[in-house]
Amino acid sequence: MGWLASLFTALCAAIVGAFSAGFVADLACSWYRISSREGGAGYFVLLWGLLGAIVGFVGGLILARVSAAYELGFLKGFGFSVGSILAVVLVAGLLGRLLADIRPKMEGRSLSVEVEIRCPAGAPKPEKVAVNGGDPHIWLQSGGGATARHANIRFEDARLEGDRWILPVEVDLHSSRSNRMFTIVLPPYESEYFFIPLAGHPGKRDLEWTDWLPRAGEPKVGPTGKERKLEVRYRVIIDPPIPAPPEPADEPEPVKAPPTADAPLVEWLPFLQRSEPDEARAKAYAIVTARPDFAQQLAALILDEDRETSDLALRAVEGLQAPPPSLGEPVHTIGAQILADILKFNDSKPEDDPSYEFAGQVDWRFAGWHEAMRILHERGNVDFLAQLKEILAASSKRSDSIAIRDITRVAKYYVEKWSASGAPK
Prior knowledge:
alpha+beta; 3 domains; 4-stranded antiparallel β-sheet; 11 helices; 13% strand
């Protein structure tokens, strides 16, 4: 192989080195979370592509001359030189991947850690007071403190079990490094530390709750040498899928004229919704409520088999200043259906519906029912407290769905509010 052939080989090796190094660098941007802000990721890829070109040219030329010295011929020398540069980039990429702190995933989705903090027996509920300029929180440190994430404790979801308060918190599981530790910052207690045996890449068994830590029989002295007052348990949860980006907005539809005064009530339902202009909505209510059989018509639509029609009818109750008590029976019927759906969800497994579509449907149904139920309880002298308590108890059984947790949050608010105020008047 002469010098001209060696230079050609070096040039080809430089091209291969530039593109392969740039490809690996592009992958490394996600492995090492290199931000694209102000072109950071682009400059990183460009720099490594340039470095790959330089190394490829120099290395390719040296290897080509070595091939010439051993009289390997052009094709063998070309393959040896270019292949060696490609192998070096491949090895560098594999090492980079092995050393990277890759975010753990399960079923292709990111993960979080749900934590519950248990206070000492008989202790009062901790108050939400500022700590160093922020709310009480928990840190999840990985890799011996090399990387950390924190989240605020959800005081609004605290519950009392026996004589012990339990406070939940959910923190992002961002690192695949093991050697993890919780740091709990919760006044009036001193900061407490818990080493947790959570693997770098959790498995299915980590979706179950752990025992309370420290376990029975284990010393209650923490790493600082002080006696622990708090206990924790945790489990891994799969984050819900990221919603698809909204489709481009279509041309706005022309404003629809309201139906005639004697049109069926189902045609008036869209004009009774909160999204309508106040004046137009008030006129619509004046027209339909003047009908002598308005309550019977609305009750039938609440129980309609078409769930969108039923939802519009439920939400129409919200605008009634004096809702007929006769609407209580159909609304109670819908509440019973929602309770049955929640129990059905409780009996299922996460793998049966990994995207939680059914839970989302139940939450959507609950949102419309909650509007009608609240108005009838507060304005129509119809008691929904007992049914709402059943829904709260059922929805509290599983917390792996954001939609079901939303039901729990709303139900808990009104159960506490109405329990304090007594029966509707």
